[in-house]
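Request: Give me one sample?
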Amino acid sequence: MATTTITAMRAALVTLLQARGGLSGVQIGYGMPPGALQREHILMGLVEATQEYRALGTARKFEDYTVTVHISVMREGTDQQATDERALVLLAEVEAALRADPTVSGTVLTAEVGRYRLEPLASESTREARVTLEITTRARI
């Protein structure tokens, strides 16, 4: 019996996102990759989970967890709005992937985008937009 679906769900989500045409050229990772990050990336992050037994004994339990996903877009120049808008397009791709396959290739019962935040950042020559989103899931294990 599996202890958790977390690793299977994250791996399946990476595969789903890599297959989306709207994310062509975007670095997508299960976690922090070695080396430098690309200017546009989507990375899986922290997971917080709970489990709940739903039957007599230990035969069946449900698992609820939140996967934090980090989206970043960095561009040369000073156009923060365009940078923010591109990051939100990447967020929309994640949402669309989950709407098309809310079971994330059968790894969970449901998965959907919950809370998210947009953080604008700037240096003298670049603009960055970071979206941190939470994907809430329910699985049976």
About this structure: Strands lie at 27-29, 40-53, 61-76, 110-122, 126-140. Residues 79 and 110 are 37 Å apart (CA to CA). The chain has one domain: 6-140.
